[in-house]
From TrEMBL:
The lineage of its organism: Bacteria, Bacillati, Actinomycetota, Actinomycetes, Propionibacteriales. Residues 84-115 are annotated as: Disordered. InterPro entries: DUF3703 (IPR022172). Pfam families: DUF3703 (PF12487). It comes from the Bacteria. It comes from Kribbella solani. This is DUF3703 domain-containing protein.
Length: 115
């Protein structure tokens, strides 16, 4: 059984696709960040998102971001499996690993448990 609602999973995939085709790196990051917020409850999606972030950081030759993503790849699945992840965190290296942030309302709605 999925650890995230079906609508959140679908939006995650939409955000990841949008990140791949966006021409502007800032837009790519924005889509990856939104996908990250949605992916956190699911170990596989969460890790996959950080791999996408690492790829973009390497393409941009951003060493700090790339190193931050390597660390996040290592802790993403265990954090998701134990439920120990900071809600609303965008997944970027400039944000602390445990720093909670407000979840955008449209994403919070998608993450509400299905009833």
């Amino acid at each position: 059984m999925s650890r995230i609602p079906a609508a959140a999973r679908a939006r995650y995939h939409e955000e990841m696709r949008a990140a791949k085709i966006a021409a502007d790196p800032a837009h790519r990051w924005a889509h990856l960040e939104r996908a990250h917020i949605l992916s956190q409850p699911d170990p596989w999606l969460h890790t996959r998102n950080h791999v996408g972030m690492l790829v973009l950081a390497v393409q941009q030759r951003d060493r700090r971001e790339a190193l931050g993503q390597v660390v996040r790849i290592a802790v993403a699945a265990p954090g998701s499996l134990t439920g120990r992840y900071p809600e609303g965190n965008t997944g970027r290296a400039s944000i602390g690993l445990t720093q909670q942030l407000p979840t955008p309302p449209d994403l919070a709605e998608l993450l509400r448990p299905e009833q």
